[in-house]
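dumping this here before i forget
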Amino acid sequence: MQDVHGLTERLREIGREFHARGWSRGTSSNYSVVASRNPLELVITASGLDKSALGEHDFVRVDREGRVIDGSGRPSSAETLLHCLIAEMIPSVGAVLHTHSVWATVLSRKHLPAGRLRIEGYEMLKGLEGIKTHDTFEDVPIFENSQDMRELSGRVRKRIEAAGFDGGPRHPFHGFLLSGHGLYTWGTSLEEARRHIEIYEFLFEVVRRSETA
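structure:
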């Protein structure tokens, strides 16, 4: 079992940071940590909250199906199932972060026809866990957005299964995009997941600025 109180306090700090950096504006975004593996339980931000002002009771505990099993009476995010799916299918995951930045939104729409965003040759790729050289690429999957979370989760499940997260030193990908929506990424720890957000956001901006240069 993790120190859930300490992790939610850190999530509150991350919420303030991500809001200030333009990655979690309005009531967008949701963040979770794995509280237990057996049984699988996550602590996730409740629905419809300003991430710059998360309180200590603005989190709920959910089971592997996304059902609230403990909390302050607030509902969990509509996208809870995606967090549960990622944590279930990638056993090393300790935290999942979902953000809505300008760069992720623009690139996810532009590159949706290809089904992925290729990022290649940048030194900052080494900030993604397991990547040791700039001389490589990261293919970030892009999914058409949907309000039907079970249908969307099914598509994401198939992509993760096909990629083969076999416990090797490098994940096939470290996150994915929903078209016109935002980024999901994860890490073995909350700090690793936060770093992946920062690295992806840097790379998204570089890619988009390069496209329009």
